[in-house]
Every structure is written in structure tokens, then in C-alpha cells.
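Q: My labmate handed me this sequence with no annotations at all. I'd like to see what the chain might look like in three dimensions before we decide whether it's worth expressing. Could you predict it?
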Amino acid sequence: GAFGLDAEVGLLLGLSFAVFYTTVGVPIGRLADAWSRRLIIAIGTAFWSVATVCCGLAQNFAQLFWARVGVGAGEASLNPSGYSMIADLFPPERRARPMGVFIAGHTIGQALTLFAGGVLVQYLVRNAVTLELTTGLVLKPWQIAFLLAGLPGVFVALLVLVIREPARRETGTGAGPASIPVREVARYVAERATLITGASAGIGAE
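A: Here is what I predict for the chain of 206 residues:
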């Protein structure tokens, strides 16, 4: 490739996902204050699942890069909405455990995905499994693995709609609180810059 194999793998695993995952999460967090968080998670799940399928259909580095961007943008919907729902489902003194389970689920899920994905790709490669689409496109084992990983997510997105949208503690209803002006948010962040910077650096170093 234009950047060299190692550099391209680094871009696919890191930059393509991380940049949009972190930046898109900010406006989605803002959106979660006003819209149905359940719906945001459902749309995001469907979006990153379709993007995962697109990873399997990619034919070059650029296509795979932008498909990974889509995965990151879609997954950015989960944390802001999930944290907000947990905050409304549990009082402050009982939030630590469900928040821990929620965060641990992400880490455990990543580990299981790497293991299951590796086993799946190994099986497909050993058996020389390929898939020819009606368009004439022939998918290799690693591409089939992406398809198998992404397609179930579309159905999971539908299951998310079954989850009850909790009443917001600020209003006692399902409606979002009044929008806080951006300048107030900026002032809040500036006043706690040391804490937020330290916490962000710690999380980023994981």
C-alpha cells in the first residue's frame, strides 16, 4: 500500500476507529440529553453492524478504512446513551455496580470477539472457504468473518428497541432536560480541566 503494510494496519486498528469514536461521541452525548437513548443505541448498533459488513465487502485499503470509520462512528452511540440510562435507572449510591458491569462487558466482549474471531478465521482458512456473490465478487475467509460478525448486529439493534426507556431523573418523564447552553458546558469543562485531562489520559493509556 501507499503507507506500507504495518502503517496501514495501524491506521485500520487505531486512527480510523479512534478518531471518529471519540469525536462523534461528543455530539451524540449531547443528543442523548434530548432524544430517546434507546433509539440512539438501536440506530448506532445497526450502523456499526452494517459498517462491519462493509469491512467484509471492501476491496482495497481506502474502502476498508472508511468502513472502519463507520464502525467507530456507530459504536460512539453506545457509551453516552448507556451511561445516561444507567444514571436514570439507579440512584447515585447504587450506580457503581451496574456501571462496572457495563464497562466490564465491553472489555470481556472484546476478548471473546478476538478469540471467537480467530477460531472462525482459522476454520475458514483451513477449509479454504470462499463466498461468491451474485455480483461476481468472491469473498475471502477474512471477509466472510466480517460478514458473519456484522449481520447478527442488525437483529440485535431491533432487540434494543424492546428495552424500556427510563424516566429522566431531572424531569421524571421520558423527555430530555432543557438543553444546557454550550458555553456553560465549556465553562464546566474548563473549571475541571485537570480532573478531566487526567481521567482521559488514564483511560486512553489502557
